[in-house]
Amino acid sequence: MKELEKITPMEQDFAKWYTDVVKQGNLIAYGPVKGTIVFKPNSYGIWEQIQKNLNEYFAEKGIQNVYLPLLIPEKLFNKEKDHIAGFNPELATITKVGDKELDEKVFIRPTSEVLFADLFKNSIESYKDLPIIYNQWANVVRWEKTTNPFLRSREFLWQEGHTCHSSAIEARKFTKGMISTYAKFLKNYLAIPTIIGKKTPKEKFAGACSTYTVEAMMKDGRALQSGTSHYLAQNFSKQFDIQFKNENNNLDYVYQTSWGVSTRLLGAIIMTHGDNRGIIMPPRVAPIQIDVLELFANKNKEVHVYCENLYKELSRKFRVRLDSSDKGPGFKASNSEIQGVPIRIEVGPRDIENKSVTVVRRDTLEKIKINNENIKEQVEIILNEIHDNLYAQAEKRLNENTVFVDNYDEFKAQIKNHKFVVAPFCCLDSAEEKIKNETGATTRCLPKKFDKPLEKHKCIFEDCRKETNRYVVFARAY
Amino acid sequence: MKELEKITPMEQDFAKWYTDVVKQGNLIAYGPVKGTIVFKPNSYGIWEQIQKNLNEYFAEKGIQNVYLPLLIPEKLFNKEKDHIAGFNPELATITKVGDKELDEKVFIRPTSEVLFADLFKNSIESYKDLPIIYNQWANVVRWEKTTNPFLRSREFLWQEGHTCHSSAIEARKFTKGMISTYAKFLKNYLAIPTIIGKKTPKEKFAGACSTYTVEAMMKDGRALQSGTSHYLAQNFSKQFDIQFKNENNNLDYVYQTSWGVSTRLLGAIIMTHGDNRGIIMPPRVAPIQIDVLELFANKNKEVHVYCENLYKELSRKFRVRLDSSDKGPGFKASNSEIQGVPIRIEVGPRDIENKSVTVVRRDTLEKIKINNENIKEQVEIILNEIHDNLYAQAEKRLNENTVFVDNYDEFKAQIKNHKFVVAPFCCLDSAEEKIKNETGATTRCLPKKFDKPLEKHKCIFEDCRKETNRYVVFARAY
């Protein structure tokens, strides 16, 4: 194992801090094709926990998992014009197999709307077959120009859900319900607070009628889009001819939704909770929740036996790792810290004498002596406290750094000041473009909680200044 | 939902039977690129159970899950000559992104030895970092000419494990241990008996030193290779320069293994257990273990309430589905049967009166009246009996249809007779080739249980007829 290296302080250089944390936390290696990454056990383990727990939420909603092909023939992809226009520049294209040219180009899926549309077309006859609520866990490829581990890579992992409904009302309800599910999941499992809202027409998904989003605030004040849910209306069903017989025995096109979260969430975890010692894993998705560290065990067999028993006992309920190597106590502690393990339990000869162990919290670095009865119960309480503390810290930061402005000068100042800025805004594409060029900020969403504001304000955009009751969150974003 | 159609009897046309079962069992749809398939909930659900349970076996062996990129640059792939020669004709090749030509061709992984080699090269310093025992669940692409759902498709899902060890002995032991794990898994979860053995030099994995296999017998007597484990020796580590410092502080190349099972297992399940009514799901990996069928429920509210409660109660322990639709009893039973659900519980008004329910076993079609106390316990016993029965049937068939021969005439007759034929054989590549051309049979393995035969026999191959103590299983194979 390589020696632990230093992490650049986030105050000094946030981007460098992020890269250092990712590298030192034993999270990834770079793949041989530029912009691809290897998910090592310490990051893939988080993704496995996300899959497991989100699948439970999905099962409650009657969602069924499926798996569709990686490969999309050119003709199929070209059916929905906005969709192909949105994705074309990033499409990895297979033209050959071995030494043979293919007759038709084949794309690697950047998302699977057209594949699901093709499937649905042949699966539905009447309203009795509806709704269909499918999800898949899959890899997708988008050939991005600039890449960053977890946040933007040429291949990433995600879940993408796709549904068909017999009415627009039901489909819209499902779209909104899913964005709430994501917000709940991020809160309950990742300890990440979010702003729920609707995307502006400019920022919505290519091919969607409307897009809902959960936006999280990173420690540098930038926004990270953490999950989206799209109401596709009949945009795809009309192009792909997905019809059903309704209750009146008339043919109609189905109403569709799609929705997803991706391995970006791993980036969100790092930049929401991490500190200058590295990543801090939210306990409920941490691949390792507890490190048991044998201190000076080579000199004391009693410590070794004790730790092995403690490891076995805790493993019944938690994801635990035992470090019984011959490294020094300082190295073992640093190694646990830099990998973000929520709790480490240090056991040395004196602890055995005193019938106690030392628990160290990764979030507060607090050392807690606990007696060695009911360790499991005490540890469970501490893990929940860590989750609650991480969430509370993040929520406080989000609230303190979200500000309302009603004029463009203040807007620019607050964006420069790394804030989430809520502003009255008419949502013209050209205005968004200009604001982005001038300030680096993009619209994140029309937040749900400002749905019905009490009073109208003038649009922030100086060429507009019309009265509006639309409020939009702006921020610089990942 | 479409009307249930008929399944061709397997005695009449086994290939047609298989296609019908796959289609009628609601297992797949065909993808838009020829040779690709959609895994629908009823087949993807089996794969999820396989993942979950095999992951538990893997965790016991200290295996860590990771995820490596889909994309392999041409240069990297070309480093191991046997490996590239084996895979080149089937490699899907990305040459363009959007409208731009790439500088270097990129292959879609057909397997990931070179990606893992590239990762290991930068991860290992000394023997203290070894062994490394990684696994990934992933999709791979091999552009096969003839395809068949689950058995041979252009994209399939699998797990591929890759390990590095400090000694040849340890790596060989791991290779053999994994093939035993697969055999145990197939027995305990899929109810499939297998013959464990070593591949002949001609049939081993491209780039391996030796390959071990588990071979299962399908109902038509053909063999299905169901899992493989490869001892790679230093073949890749030398090409990719994966070195470590051993205990004597000298540099050495690591010894490697790789091993995998794939969604072929779904084909194995169908062709091992299925009958003329369709697939029969082995209970421990069935996505739905129990169908609760409300009979005449629209006329009887008591039945409906009873079934809902039964569904809730059983769901605590099993994967259950409730059919409370307005279809007739016959349709509901057929629908459950054709999807291979191990048990259906039929509840009609009379059952409520008699305080009993009717359990129908999918394997034997036996109807069992059970009283409605302790249903959970009774159902668990029946599910275990179904597993045991499926295994016993398959084992009996395997034993009865595996024959020993010592001359080529009998060999040809028994192959024609759809048997697994064990024969003395010197394992010359050219002899294998000729036998394959003449009989359609390939070598499946040198079986473990014939490792040390009591007596030598003459090689089956007529141009050879040397005395040998090698025994080889031949069969026609998928």
Question: What report would you give on this structure?
Answer:
- The structure is a homodimer of 478-residue chains.
- With 478 residues, the first copy, chain A, is of the alpha+beta class.
- Chain A folds into three domains: 14-68 and 117-273, BirA Bifunctional Protein, domain 2; 290-382, Anticodon-binding domain (Rossmann fold, 3-Layer(aba) Sandwich); 402-475, C-terminal domain of ProRS (Translation Initiation Factor IF3).
- Chain A is built from 14 helices and 25 strands.
- Chain A has helices spanning 14-24, 41-60, 74-77, 81-87, 113-121, 168-190, 235-240, 264-273, 301-315, 329-338, 349-354, 375-400, 408-416, 429-439; strands at 28-30, 37-39, 64-65, 71-73, 92-97, 100-108, 132-141, 155-165, 195-198, 210-217, 223-233, 243-245, 251-253, 255-262, 290-294, 320-323, 343-347, 356-361, 367-371, 402-404, 420-424, 442-447, 457-458, 467-468, 471-475.
- In chain A, the strands form six sheets. An eleven-stranded mixed β-sheet of chain A has the order 3-7-8-14-11-10-9-22-25-21-20, sandwiched between helices. In chain A, strands 16-15-17-18-19 form a five-stranded mixed β-sheet, sandwiched between helices. In chain A, strands 4-6-5 form a three-stranded antiparallel β-sheet.
- The two termini of chain A are 32 Å apart.
- The interface between A and B is large, with 57 and 57 residues.
Main pleated-sheet profile of chain A: 11 strands, mixed
Stated plainly, the CATH topology of the largest domain in chain A is called: BirA Bifunctional Protein, domain 2
Continuous helix count of chain A: 14
- What proportion of the residues of chain A is helical, as a percent range? 25-40%
The CATH class of the largest domain in chain A is identified as: Alpha Beta
Determine the N-to-C terminus distance of chain A.
Answer: 32 Å
Radius of gyration of chain A: 25 Å
Give the helix/strand class of chain A.
Answer: alpha+beta
The mean pLDDT of chain A is 95
Query: What is the beta-strand fraction of chain A?
Result: 25-35%
**CATH architecture title of the largest domain in chain A:** 2-Layer Sandwich
Tally of domains of chain A: 3
Largest interface in this structure:
A-B, 57 and 57 residues
From the spread of the alpha carbons, the general shape of chain A counts as globular
Report strand order across the widest sheet of chain A: 3-7-8-14-11-10-9-22-25-21-20
Number of distinct beta strands of chain A: 25
